[in-house]
Design goal:
Length: 404
């Protein structure tokens, strides 16, 4: 059996469809975010990064870096094992306390990534709550979908952000049956935001748990960076809040926050927690420093919001199509996988602008896009270069423009 031939045939099909993914070889430099060095074909070029999920540049915040360096000097590098055997460090406990405080929950529980925290929590809840049904928004992240699938619980998919469809499906279920409504606050590809209050109203009416993924919102929204639920005064109505340390907080890891019983339940039964080596203590210490900083500082959020508005206005002025949404994510729409890849390559090669193409299966076919995420540290000159480059490419590639 020629296994490599089987692999290569599917890879070739992926290339023909324009959906083959190519990783840029980038080096970020301390104190110079969002600029980086792109190494390629034995050479290198300076580039400006426009698609980072380090939304606020906290990965290079001096206090965050100092906390990590100090923790490495104090504790070394790795955690030494799983949390259950030899890997629980005092820094893990401090971080969990910080996260519980951030979301006004009794406790929090750390995982190695946001993907793992979603997968582990939903798969455990679905597998161990008798006769539970999970109602999942149709645009939920792959980690949530995989967790629900792995649980083998009954699942129902409701139309994205559609309260009528959600209520219809809730009403069809036995009132005494356990139910979990799983959804996100900020959806990362379109940048739209869930109607959290309305979902909570339905959960109360039909006796359901609420499971809210805030990975693209923590650090970004609310007076202390607790997410959209904090901004809207709804954290107390959410049963479980899931988040990440790898985006706006600039570090690595995922977590859940909720009641003591709920988090202990996940801690005790989730294989994705039990059998995984813990985060390095230095990463936990850095994340703690980042969360503490963003609990009190509004500067980064305010500057980032201003940059987002500036980019949107400039795109509008040039007629470059993008999805209008209330979040910090700007999807510039192309609608063709080959052109999307080509434009991304040309931005890198000709203008030193790095924006990865977003193609299927991350987004549906025909909705291919560049996902732009302005940061507080992008300059006026960076924005002008980006808009000028896109304007030129829209003309070169004969792409449709928005009509004012």
């Amino acid at each position: 059996m020629e296994y490599d031939a089987l692999f290569n045939s599917q890879l070739s099909k992926l290339r023909e469809e324009g959906n083959y993914r190519i990783f840029a070889n980038l080096e970020r430099h301390c104190g110079n975010f969002p600029n980086a060095t792109n190494r390629h074909d034995g050479g290198q070029r300076d580039v400006t990064v426009w698609c980072s999920n380090d939304y606020l540049g906290m990965g290079q915040n001096p206090d965050v870096m100092a906390a990590m360096v100090a923790a490495v000097n104090d504790y070394g590098t790795g955690a030494g094992g799983t949390r259950n055997i030899s890997g629980t460090n005092h820094q893990h406990l401090l971080l969990e306390q910080e996260l519980a405080d951030l979301h006004h929950k009794e406790v929090a529980l750390l995982f190695t990534s946001g993907y793992v925290s979603n997968w582990a929590a939903l798969s455990t809840l679905g597998a161990r709550l008798p006769n539970v049904v999970i109602l999942s928004d149709s645009l939920n992240h792959a980690s949530m979908i995989e967790g629900i699938r792995h649980s083998r619980a009954e699942k129902r998919i409701w139309k994205h952000n559609d309260m009528e469809d959600l209520e219809r499906q809730l009403a069809e279920l036995d009132p005494d049956r356990p139910k979990i409504i799983a959804f996100e606050s900020v959806y990362s590809m379109d940048g739209d935001i869930a109607p959290i209050a309305e979902i909570c109203d339905l959960a109360d009416r039909y006796g359901a748990m609420t499971y809210l993924d805030e990975v693209h919102a923590v650090g970004m929204y609310g007076p202390r960076g607790g997410g959209v639920a904090e901004r809207e005064g709804l954290m107390d109505r959410i049963t479980l809040i899931e988040g990440t340390l790898g985006k706006a907080f600039g570090c690595m890891g995922g977590y859940i926050a909720g009641s003591s019983a709920l988090c202990d339940f996940i801690r005790s039964f989730a294989s994705g927690f039990i059998f995984t080596t813990a985060l390095p203590p230095a990463v936990a210490a850095a994340a703690c420093a980042s969360i503490r900083h963003l609990k009190t500082s509004q500067v980064e959020r305010q500057q980032q919001a201003a940059r987002v508005a500036q980019v949107r206005a400039a795109l509008d002025a040039r007629g470059i199509p993008h999805i209008d949404n209330p979040s910090h994510i700007i999807p510039v729409m192309i609608g063709n996988p080959v052109k999307c890849r080509m434009i991304s390559d040309m931005l890198m090669e000709n203008w030193g602008i790095y924006v990865q193409p977003i193609n299927y299966p991350t987004v549906p076919k025909g909705t291919e896009r560049l996902r732009i995420t302005p940061s507080p540290l992008h300059s006026d000159a960076d924005i002008e270069m980006l808009i000028s480059a896109l304007d030129d490419l829209w003309s070169q590639c004969a792409l449709s423009r928005m009509v004012a």
